[in-house]
Description:
Number of domains: 1
Shape: globular
Strand order of the largest sheet: 2-1-3-4
Distance between the termini: 61 Å
Strand content: 5-15%
CATH class: Mainly Alpha
CATH superfamily: Porin chaperone SurA, peptide-binding domain
Structural class: mainly alpha
CATH architecture: Orthogonal Bundle
Largest sheet: 4 strands, mixed
Number of helices: 11
Helix content: 55-70%
Order of helices and strands: HEEHHHHHHHHHEHE
Amino acid sequence: xxxxxxxxxxxxxxxxxxxxxxxxxxxxxxxxxxxxxxxxxxxxxxxxxxxxxxxxxxxxxxxxxxxxxxxxxxxxxxxxxxxxxxxxxxxxxxxxxxxxxxxxxxxxxxxxxxxxxxxxxxxxxxxxxxxxxxxxxxxxxxxxxxxxxxxxxxxxxxxxxxxxxxxxxxxxxxxxxxxxxxxxxxxxxxxxxxxxxxxxxxxxxxxxxxxxxxxxxxxxxxxxxxxxxxxxxxxxxxxxxxxxxxxxxxxxxxxxxxx
Length: 259
C-alpha cells in the first residue's frame, strides 16, 4: 500500500500555561514576611521575579511550571527539551495575550467545563507520552501526572487558559479571511499533487478543497497573529531581570535586561 500524505487539520499555537496568580500572591506574602522578620544568614529564597511584562511579574516558579507542563503539548514532539530561555519567551507572549483578552472581553473567551473535560480526554487518548503509560485508564493517568509532577487541577487550569487563547485568536484573526478558488487550485497542483508517488490514487480537487481551504486559512491566521504579537511586544514594557534568560529574539524585539 502506498503512503499518502496527510493534510493536517489543526495547527499548533503557542502552548498555554499562564503565570500563576496564586504563585504571585505567595511571593508577595513571602516578601511581606521577610520585611517583618529579622535578617538571617540562613534565610531561604522561596521564589524570585525573572521578568516583568507591563507590571505583571513572571516568577522562577512559573518557569518551572512551564517546563513541567511542556509534556502536555503535542506540538513539542521532535523539538527536543524545552529550555528555560524558550519557556520564558512563551510566558512573556502568553502574558501579553492575556492582558489583551482582559482588556476586550475575557468572559466571552472563557471555555466551558465540558470543553476542558473534552480536551483532557483527547490528551489522555492521543498524547504520545500518555499512550505509552495507558492514560486512558484512571490509574494510568494518575501515574502519568505523578511522574511529571502535575496535579489534575493544574492540568485543567492549563487547558482552560490554552482554550481561552485559541478562541481569542480565532475570533480576532480568522474573521474576514477569504481563500479564493485560485489559491486552493494552486496549492492542490503545486503542493499536494507532487507528494503522491506514481500509481497512487490521487483525490480529485473538489474532494480535498475544504481541507486545503482550512490549511491556507490557518496559515494566514498564523501570519497575522505572529505580526500582531511582535508589535504588541514592541509597544509593551517587557523587562527580563535575569540575563541568563535572554534570547536573541528577546533583545531584537525590544526586551530590556536590567542588572
